[in-house]
Amino acid sequence: MNLRGVGVSPGIGHGPSYVMSASVPEPPEGATYTGEAEQEKERAMAALTRVAGELEARGNQAGGEAAEILKAQALMAEDPGLVVKVRSLIDRGLAAPRAVFEAFTRYREMLAGSGGFLGERAADVADIRDRVVALLYGHSMPVVPAAPAEPYVLVARDLAPADTALLSREQVAAFVTEEGGPTSHTAIIARAMGVPAVVACPGATGIPPGVRVMVDGSTGEVRLEPADADVADAAAAATARQAALASWQGPGATADGHEVPLLANVGGPGELADAVGAGAEGIGLYRTEFLFLGRSEAPAEEEQREAYRAALEAFPGGTVVVRTLDVGADKPLAFLPVPAEPNPALGERGLRRSRKFPEVMEAQLGALAAVASERLQVMAPMVATAEEAAWFARTCRAKGLGEAGVMIEIPSAALRAADLLAAVDFVSIGTNDLSQYAFAADRGLSAMSALHDPWQPALLGLVAMATGAARQAGKPCGICGEAAADPALACVFVGLGASTLSMAPSALAAVRAGLGAHTLEQCRQAARAAREQDTAADARAAAREHLPELDRLGL
Ligand code: PEP
Ligand code: MG
Questions:
Q1: Which of 215, 336, 459, 463 has the fewest C-beta atoms lying within 10 Å of its C-beta?
Q2: Which CATH number, 3.50.30.10, 3.90.1150.10, 3.20.20.70, 3.30.460.80, labels domain 2-21+142-231?
Q3: Any ligand 1 atom below 6 A from CB of 536
Q4: Which of 14, 185, 518, 546 is catalytic?
């Protein structure tokens, strides 16, 4: 039997499966307590504090990136908004375990529904909930074997940093999770450990315990009971591919020297090391809403300043593009309440929300201005009109911020890119939302995946409009949606005139190699050929004909 998910940490891992069960039982619905409400609240608070302390201690023991991640998770356990919720549920008569269960489950569901970065924090919230509930009941948490006879393939619905932080390559051959995404903590920790991992793998938890499993962390393939020869072949091929990719170093450029800085998409200070390690030349998209996750109040200017300073320091000499808060729809933030809207994706989100709460954006721009350098660029999300772009640019300049840009992720912005460019210094195309709005297809709905295919000719057409307008205006146009992570599409975007490409750090090596193996003229031919096609599949095939080295590189 073969399964397929998303490969997020490259390499071949092979070993017996260890399937981790989710064994913390749900506290009965409506469970009440007998004593005083205050005592029950103290019991809940003590358990939350203890779990936060344990997570932090585990992080300190693990060190490195895991320490940062577990520290953030520990903070989430004592999140003021969640604490208030737990206390009020206890006031309403629910026993401490049930109150914790309900408060954290609701928050988990809200995050899971939002997809993307925030969605991938859902597992962290569920993990805290289960730990606190287990503690209140006196149960123990499921543990993974510490000293196995041979490294195992750890299979789970999802994994929390606390599960993985203390594991080592001697224990684990690979990770496979049914849920999670490329920016989930399983993915981040797996990459940091150098252990192959596949996430978002339907059917993973149905893998029988103890069967031999081979995991390809590049292609996302999970094979059960493979032949020994197949394992040897796959491992040899993966090693050769890794070596080929690793031999492409240095700044992003085509084979004939046309420079295209390759930048990273990041969501917080904990991701900077990963981006630097992957050879990013700067940051093309800092999703700052991620810094504010789970807060009931906006973070202080000082804290924001530190985060932005850390980003600039991580890339001495590199550009850092910080996006102002992109709140609403799939990215809810507690301190900027969203009105009840029938279609939140079409509602008051992104820059529209920032105009409604100018004090929050003022504070953010103030923090950015305090660390401003020539390398810092600020951009606004979800901009629909030239008037909005001009307002944003004026607001930035009034704060002393020199480089102001906007994202092109609404079709109206692509159609009128020339007008937007007249008001700002640069634009950056967000292919994720641009595709959602161009095709009227919710980006979180996997049933719409054919329409989300970034090779769709209509999407390529919108991208070409924006890059064409930027060329005319003599201003930069970057691409920062997930589409830039596809090495072939990255070449097409360069052929269309993209000046920078920004992506998840894990994609940088493949894009650097793919671009470096082709000339600018080949990229242009690939773009022209793709644009002449009627379907996404034909566009991909036509472009690849002009990018012959991709196959040789195994991309
Ligand atoms: C996009 O929409 O393409 C984008 C880069 O922004 P986000 O994924 O954060 O919405
Ligand atoms: Mg977007």
A1: 336
A2: 3.50.30.10
A3: no
A4: 185
Q: Is 201 a catalytic residue?
A: no
Please state, in angstroms and rounded to a whole number, the distance separating the CA atoms of residues 279 and 273: 10
Of the candidates 85, 100, 2, 119, the one whose C-alpha atom is nearest the C-alpha of residue 43 is 100
The active-site residue, picked from 201, 396, 477, 480, is 480
Angstrom CA distances, 138 to 47, 49, 95, 336, stand at 11, 16, 15, 37
**Nearest one of 489, 476, 482, 488 to 505, comparing CA atoms:** 482
pTM over 0.90: no
- Is residue 430 in contact with ligand 1, taking CB distance under 6 Å? yes
- Six-digit token string for 277: 């390690």
Confidence at residue 264, expressed as pLDDT on a 0 to 100 scale: 94
Is 452 known to be catalytic? no
Which of 407, 428, 439, 500 to mutate to test ligand 1, by most ligand atoms within 8 A of the CB atom? 407
CATH code for the structural domain at 37-137: 1.10.274.10
- 471-505 pLDDT tens trace: 999 999 999 987 898 899 999 999 999 999 998 88
